[in-house]
């Protein structure tokens, strides 16, 4: 390898940005075609989704190699990655802020077409102190276990790091299962007025973020088992922890505002 006289990582040319772009274009086009019952829409949707999954696996595999085996992730590079993750989380906060804004806009001054009441007439909201309260306890517990895992890896305690992270992933899977059960038993759908639309958009996108965070933590678990991380070099794990705490924070807002106050 050539010697570098700077702490930065100059990324080599890669086909993955182009492949990811074509996959995203095909995914959105296929989704529109599928929703409008055009022929081959479903095929394009599934093919593009498979392409994105392959690109994601291959691209992140290369990043893991660069960080773990090639030593390209210097202290300066790690700082840049942390800043990038922080800005990404800020953008996600603004994403959810838009949906919460829509919820408050509709609930604080309900239109006459909704019966001038909130929840709208005909909507039986989900009891906040049933499954949502249980899911709140589960998600907050997972935040505690992932923090336990973080402190364990800093202390060099590999055993507790793995055990705590396994508990976190298991709790995340349980949360997702309960959320699916809640959707299945709900008395309203996304087509039932603005309440159904905002409710399922908020909770659905949060559920998607929980799924992404679960995969993120599961990958970190595999990397910890394979000794990719040390107590001084675990930037990817810290990024996953930040993301998971963000998911916890959004859920608290959902529980208090949508499930409890909004019902």
Record keyword descriptors for this entry.
263 residues; 2 domains; globular; mainly alpha; 7 helices; Four Helix Bundle (Hemerythrin (Met), subunit A); Helix Hairpins
Structural notes for this entry:
The protein has 263 residues and is mostly helical. It folds into two domains: 1-72, Helix Hairpins (Orthogonal Bundle); 74-261, Up-down Bundle (Four Helix Bundle (Hemerythrin (Met), subunit A)), CATH 1.20.120. Helix content is 74%, strand content 0%. The chain is built from seven helices and no strands. The chain has helices spanning 16-35, 41-68, 75-108, 131-154, 158-185, 193-225, 235-261. The longest helix has 34 residues, at 75-108. The radius of gyration is 21 Å and the shape is globular. The termini are far apart. The model has no long low-confidence stretch (mean pLDDT 91).
| DSSP strand tally | 0
CATH architecture of the largest domain: Up-down Bundle
**Gyration radius, to the nearest Å?**
21 Å
What is the CATH level 1 assignment of the largest domain? Answer: Mainly Alpha
* Annotation field: number of helices: 7
Determine the CATH superfamily of the largest domain.
Cytochrome c oxidase, subunit III, four-helix bundle
Number of domains: 2
The run of helices and strands is HHHHHHH
Shape: globular
Detail the poorly predicted runs: none
Largest sheet: none
* Overall SS class: mainly alpha
Chain-averaged pLDDT:
91
Distance between the termini: 62 Å
Question: What name is given to the CATH topology of the largest domain?
Answer: Four Helix Bundle (Hemerythrin (Met), subunit A)
Helix percentage = over 70%
Relative strand content: under 5%
